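SEQUENCE AND FOLD
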Amino acid sequence: MKLTVVGCWGGYPKMNEASTGYLLEHESFHLLIDCGSGVLSRLQNFLQPEELDAVILSHYHADHIADIGVLQHARLTQGFLGKKTPTLPIYGHPLDEQEFSKLTYKEITEGIAYDPAKMLQAGPFNISFLPAVHPVPCFAMKIEAAGKTLIYTADTSFKPEFIPFAAGADVLLCECNFYGGQDGEGAGHMNSFDAGNLAERAGVGQLVLTHLPHYGELDQLVSEASREYKGQVSLAHEGLTIMV
């Protein structure tokens, strides 16, 4: 699996960048994980919108879905220009009916409800879910293909169930919206110590910190997470590519 970070910011995108979005590729299948503000613009550095095969969404906060509408319009426009594409499946949870209904647009995209209690197959990927701890329904994902495992925490505060869920994963793509001395639990987010602790206790291959804060020295997040986790820790950034 090839993971490319399209956007990594929490809340809103940094200037000329994007909030949450990740491109996962395997066997020529292109899966976009979340589609926040600025993602469609930055995605085009790596892949054209009409080349996507599927999208999956963790939840419906704007920094994770703001560019769904413009993705739909981009594929519509390319159709007018002669690049007819199949209907794009957008997988989302059905617990917010109003937001879920927006995932279907003409014959351009189709919203498909995933059942968080069951495994989802999207192309070559097997995806299972864990309910996150966040102010709205949100789901972490375990994505598996070719014997490799990627864990994406989505937005959440720490809970013990993440440890068996992430156990032995090759890559933990972990939200880190707060520094170690801050308590993000009430906002439904982890801090750097939480991320490092999870990575260490789950025995993952490497830790990538994402959903980053807009203040402070970001390298501090790495040093703080490294107090808890003895493996490789890196900061997400646009264009970061990891072979899982």
About this structure: The domain at 1-116 is CATH 3.60.15.10 (Metallo-beta-lactamase; Chain A). The chain has a mean pLDDT of 97. The chain is about 20% helix and 30% strand.
